Amino acid sequence: METAINILVGKWKPVILYHLFENETLRFSELQRSIPMPMPEWGVKHLQHLDELYGEKQISQRD
């Protein structure tokens, strides 16, 4: 439960996760272009935090 809360805390994390789930694989620059407004530096930090949480794990296990 704590992990789920940590993932969703922050303004940009849900936006980032939405675009990653919709597109499965995105390069960082593609992710930035897919978000309708400029992602500030702290948005980038949220992305880095998500990367630390998941590393190489695949989170798109949609059945």
UniProtKB/TrEMBL annotation:
InterPro entries in UniProt: HTH_HxlR (IPR002577), WH-like_DNA-bd_sf (IPR036388), WH_DNA-bd_sf (IPR036390)
Superkingdom to which the source organism belongs: Bacteria
Pfam entry (one): HxlR
Limits of the HTH hxlR-type domain: 1-63
Name of the protein in its database record: HTH hxlR-type domain-containing protein
Organism: Oceanobacillus arenosus
Lineage: Bacteria, Bacillati, Bacillota, Bacilli, Bacillales
